[in-house]
Amino acid sequence: MLPLRLLALLALFLAVWADCPCQEPALCGPILHRPDFEVFVFDVGQKTWKSYDWSQITTVAVFGKYDSELMCYAHSKGARVVLKGDVPLKDIIDPSFRASWIAQKLHLAKTQYMDGINIDIEQEVNCSSPEYNALTALVKETTESFHHEIEGSQVTFDVAWSPKNIDRRCYNYTGIADACDFLFVMSYDEQSQVWSECIAAANAPYNQTLSGYNDYIKMGISPKKLVMGVPWYGYDYPCLNLSEDSAGRFHQVWYDNPQSISLKAAYIQNYGLRGIGMWNANCLDYSGDAEAKQQTEEMWEALKPKL
Ligand SMILES: *[C@@H]1O[C@H](CO)[C@@H](O)[C@H](O)[C@H]1NC(C)=O
Ligand SMILES: *[C@@H]1O[C@H](CO)[C@@H](O)[C@H](O)[C@H]1NC(C)=O
Ligand SMILES: *[C@@H]1O[C@H](CO)[C@@H](O)[C@H](O)[C@H]1NC(C)=O
Ligand SMILES: *[C@@H]1O[C@H](CO)[C@@H](O)[C@H](O)[C@H]1NC(C)=O
């Protein structure tokens, strides 16, 4: 007869794996490997993930509908799969609300065999408001709960391209960085500060992008807590008045290409950042058309650190 303790363990094991949607039940287990270099990928849905460069991906943040096939596949490649976390900031001032929000996310992560959460709160916070400290507390408590409950789990937080309270987001950046595994720095939409008229310009200009990292590092955040987010999208500005008789059919288009991304990736290496990622991986053309295929490959290739 099996000792009681072993039976209990077996029952627990069966309960955990019983609902595993993967062909190989072990794929429902958490990812424990800690990569030296993060390639953090946002996925917004559908099946283009099948064409991603999985030799590089370390984390997929699922911002589309939950897809168990994606979870199983990512796990088979050793990549973490994380939830999206967003919550109205006025609610999190209440510690009991925070606790129930975290419990709910944890439950979701466990039932979907996810490896953590990416907290994406892109809301204004007044420096002297109660939300300021509540947000840091939310991140800290989420990290503690996830690390305690899901082995190897990862908790990350999305911040704007600069810590200078972009879009009126006054956050405790050093406190939040300490409270989670790393920050995903959204180095794009860098024109967002324009509250009046917007003039066509780059989405993520090189110098401005790097100045954001310099500022994060200057305030005491370790480069190892920073993952650089690059845009895999651009902006198409219809020209209002290019010339007197223009019918507005001229456009100015700004986007990042493999060259501009490689330059940013070189900074990552020189400054020892934790890794790279993009908003979002679905943006490329995965149709398989010969020209698209080559360009798409070059975009993925540009993420790699050059030796
Ligand atoms: C921030 O909050 C303070 C105190 O409630 C208020 O006086 C101030 O106007 C607010 N600032 C902004 C930018 O909302
Ligand atoms: C930021 O958060 C940390 C940890 O909670 C705290 O020690 C620090 O005083 C906070 N900094 C500011 C400027 O509020
Ligand atoms: C970017 O920064 C470099 C080094 O500080 C400077 O030489 C260059 O002129 C800058 N470029 C732009 C477009 O501001
Ligand atoms: C475009 O240019 C014409 C001629 O210079 C001017 O009359 C018109 O007001 C301009 N329109 C806008 C939207 O600036």
Q: What are its keywords?
A:
Chitinase_II/V-like_cat, two-stranded antiparallel sheet, 8 helices, TIM Barrel, globular, Glyco_hydro_18_chit_AS, GH, chitinase activity, 8-stranded parallel beta barrel, 307 residues
What is the fold's blueprint, element by element?
Elements: H1 4-17, E1 38-43, E2 59-62, H2 68-76, E3 80-85, H3 95-111, E4 116-119, H4 130-149, E5 154-160, H5 173-179, E6 182-186, H6 206-218, E7 226-231, E8 234-238, E9 251-255, H7 258-271, E10 275-279, H8 290-301
Parallel strand pairs: 1-2, 1-10, 2-3, 3-4, 4-5, 5-6, 6-7, 7-10
Antiparallel strand pairs: 8-9
The chain binds 2-acetamido-2-deoxy-beta-D-glucopyranose (NAG) (4 copies).
Explain how this protein is built.
The protein has one domain: TIM Barrel (Alpha-Beta Barrel), CATH 3.20.20. The model has no long low-confidence stretch (mean pLDDT 92). The protein is globular. It is an alpha/beta fold. Strand 6, helix 6 and strand 7 form a beta-alpha-beta unit. It has 8 helices and 10 strands. It has an 8-stranded parallel barrel, surrounded by 5 helices. It is 35% helix and 17% strand. The N and C termini lie far apart (58 Å). Helix 3 packs parallel to helix 4. The site of one 2-acetamido-2-deoxy-beta-D-glucopyranose has 3 residues, from loops. Keywords: Glycosidase, Hydrolase, Signal. This is Chitobiase. GO terms for molecular function: chitin binding; chitinase activity.
